[in-house]
Structure formats: structure tokens, C-alpha cells
Amino acid sequence: MKKFRVIDYFDGDENATDGVCCHCVCCHCGKLKIGDRIKFGSYPKEFYSDKKEPIEWRVLAVENGKALIISEYGLDSKEYNEGFRSFFEPWRKCTLREWLNSEFLNSAFENIEKDMILPVHIKKDNTLVFKDKGDKVFILSAEEAEQYFKNDEDRKCVHTQYKCSNNEWWTRTAGRLGGVVYVDKYGHLSYFGTGANSDFTMVRPALWIKIDTNNMFCDKNTLGNIFDNAINIAVLETVKKMKDDKGISVSYEAVEEALYKYIMGKENAGERKTYKG
Q1: E strands in 72-221
Q2: Helix (H) or strand (E) holding 204
Q3: Is the dihedral of CA 157, 91, 65, 223 positive or negative?
Q4: Where are the beta strands (DSSP E) in the chain?
Q5: Main-chain phi, psi angles of 128, to 5 degrees
Q6: How many CA atoms lie within 13 A of 90 on its CB side?
Q7: For the chain, how many structural domains are there in total?
Q8: Per-residue pLDDT tens over the stretch 108-154
Q9: How many other CB atoms sit within 10 Å of the CB of residue 106?
Q10: d(CA 77, CA 52)
């Protein structure tokens, strides 16, 4: 069976598995709440492996048909500014911004997933506004890291096995000593900062995504048996109806393949195709 896209919604249940339908955001966007975990996009997790696995995100805010999410784990370790530039640079000039919105964005998300990410603009005062030609991916400011996490314990983060790290993560705020403010391994915001060219500091990407039903896509592998059954019933009913109404006998496989080609044909032609339920 072919794949459809999904955002997989855990509803806070970390023991949920891909073989069980947890909750899909497309069906339950009204229930999506702060603290929930969702899967969206994919990125390597294992030690220097290119094999991609679903990225787990934490919901930090939900408002007006959109949600702010941040990666639950440090996905990579990168310099805020590459080379010998240890001093802070504004977000618009740093190399981490360029990497997140080019190499990372293209590696972690398919085109239909990119369409679900709302672009933002980081202003000179380090605040964020929504803008059509802004960044798809960013990192939190120190103020946002204070605002969206309850305390130091809530801010603590560990890295995946993909890249080694010191379990400290970047913000986009200037440090008091010329470096960049970061969150240390205890979840404390270090306002004195560290050198912008530290390559052991983790990256926790953040995004604003659309959560309205018209922009959600379902992945058969994630929804598991429930989605399987729905497809099976739809195909079997189609086969039966064609035989009863028109006297035409077709195979299950033929109808299944036709359904897949119809859906993928719309997507490959660049037409936005939405699926409900």
C-alpha cells in the first residue's frame, strides 16, 4: 500500500506506537493543546546515520488556526556563526539561520509539509511577525524560552544520537559578554552567553504550522490498522458497486492502484489536494 502524509498526534502519551492510531491533528485540531507531542517531518537520529526517522515536536502555543512547535530533542549540533566569528550576529546575518532555511528545511520536510509551515520575520528588536517571504524555521529568543517553558526542568533538552552535543541549546539572543545566550544542560538560561562558533551546542528548530483541517495529510503507516480498514472498506465497496451497478468486475488491486494514482496525480501536478477525516 502506498503512503499518504500525516501529522501524528500523541496527546501526551509517550507510550503510543506507530502501529496504533493515536490522534491525527487533521481530525482533532480543536483538541491540540500546549504540551502535546506531534510527529512532523523526518531527520536522522542514529549516530552519523543518514536514515531518517519522524521528528517529534512539542506544542508551545496554539492560537487562531496555527501552532508553535519546537523539536523535543536537539536534532543537530551547529555553530550559530561558522568560522572564527565568536561574537553575536543578529539572526538575519547568522549562518545558523541560513542552514535551517535551506539544508535542514529541504532535508526534513517534503513540499506538502513545507506548505503547512507559516513563514515568519525576525525584526531588529528580535520579536517575531508573520510575513509571506520570511523564514520557515527559526530558533527561540531567550525571552520566548522564558515565556513558553514553565521552568528550568521543562527547558532541559537532550540530543539524539545523530550528533554529539553538550545538551545545551541555542537561542537567537545576544549574550552580555558578546556571545549568544544559550540554555544549559540544567535548563537554565545563560545570559552571559557562549561563543557563537561553538559547534557542540544543540539546535532545537522551531516552526509555526497551520492546524486547520484543510492542510493535513494522512500517512497509512502512522494511522495503522484503522486507516487500513477505512481504505479496505472504501475499495471493497467500490468494487461491489461497480459490479452491481454496471456489471463490471474489477480486482481489489486495480481499484487500490487507481485510488493511489488519482491522489498522487493531483499532488504531482502541483495541485493542492486536501483530505478530511
Answers
A1: 76-77, 117-118, 120-122, 128-130, 169-174, 180-183, 189-194, 202-203, 206-210
A2: none
A3: negative
A4: 8-9, 23-24, 37-44, 52-63, 66-71, 76-77, 117-118, 120-122, 128-130, 169-174, 180-183, 189-194, 202-203, 206-210
A5: -115, 135
A6: 8
A7: 2
A8: 998 888 988 999 999 989 999 998 889 999 999 999 999 999 999 99
A9: 11
A10: 16
Q: What are phi and psi of 207, to 5 degrees?
A: -145, 155
Are 75 and 163 in the same domain?
yes
In this structure, the answer to whether residues 132 and 187 fall within a common structural domain is: yes
Domain co-membership, 19 together with 61: yes
Please identify which residue in the block is written with the cell numbers 538560561: 189
Residue type, 142: A
Query: 71 lies in a domain?
Result: yes
All cell numbers assigned to 267: 499532488
Contact 32, 10 (CB under 8 A): no
Count each helix (H run) and each strand (E run) in the chain, helices first.
Answer: 9, 14
Does residue 277 lie in a domain region? no
pLDDT in tens, 187-200: 999 999 999 988 88
The answer to whether residues 232 and 109 belong to one domain is no
DSSP class per residue in 133-166: TSBS-B---HHHHHHHSSSHHHH---B-SSS---
Output the pTM of the full model. Answer: 0.69
Q: What mean pLDDT do residues 194-209 have? A: 92
Exposure class string for 228-257: b at 16+ Cβ within 10 A, else e: eeebeeebeebbeeeeeeeeeeeeeeebbe
